[in-house]
Amino acid sequence: MAHGGRRRAAIFAAGELLDLDRVRALVGQPDLVICADGGLRHAQALGLRVDLLVGDFDSLDGAALADARAAGMAIVQVPVEKDRTDSQIALEEALRRGADEILLAGGSGTRLDHTLSNVLLLPRCPVPVTMTDGKSVVRVLRDGQTLEVPRAAGAYLSLVPLTPAVTGVTVTGVHWPLGGAALRWGESLGISNRVVDVAARVSVGAGCLLVIQAWD
């Protein structure tokens, strides 16, 4: 069921989920559930009906794959030798199926290369994508956009530039506010702030910015 006219997709990758309750709250009731390979176990742990399973199935054991086939789950199997990760393929499938808001869960973990690759899929996507492992919630802000981040117990708020300079960065409702600041590669000005009001408000003039809410 679309939410306010929007079609929400939840994608589960095979990385780590460190706080299942927080992930459950973020997932809510999506209109579309896609699992990338071993991400199937996360969707099953949350009791979600899976609409599509994609991947080369190097991180999903044979018995689980056989059970998925026996249950009649829609499956797209891709070669092991390919030019895109399973996560990218899952994102593209979500877009092809009309998603205009996406949650990517399990996109980070022990493989730094996969984690960075998944983070960098976010600004490439033409619709809003939130990435989470339950201990962090990552979103992207682009030119002229504004985002509200609700206060959450124990959470840090960090801003990381994805372009060489992000200008006109204004942040209110936090312990260390910013007014029209520039955040640049190689500088850590935006790290480990705290939301002190009901919500923080982050806006960007020009550039592309990661907005990260993180818990220890």
Automatic annotation (TrEMBL):
GO molecular function, one term: kinase activity
Top-level EC class: transferase
UniProt xrefs under SMART domains: TPK_B1_binding
EC number: 2.7.6.2
Domain Thiamin pyrophosphokinase thiamin-binding span(s) in chain numbering: 144-210
CDD domains for the chain: TPK
Lineage top rank: taxon: Bacteria
Keywords per UniProt: ATP-binding, Kinase, Nucleotide-binding, Transferase
Gene3D superfamilies tied to this protein: Thiamin pyrophosphokinase, catalytic domain
Pfam families (UniProt xref): TPK_B1_binding, TPK_catalytic
Biological process (GO), any one: thiamine diphosphate biosynthetic process
Membrane-traversing stretches: none
Entries under NCBIfam families matching the protein: thi_PPkinase
Name of this chain's protein: Thiamine diphosphokinase
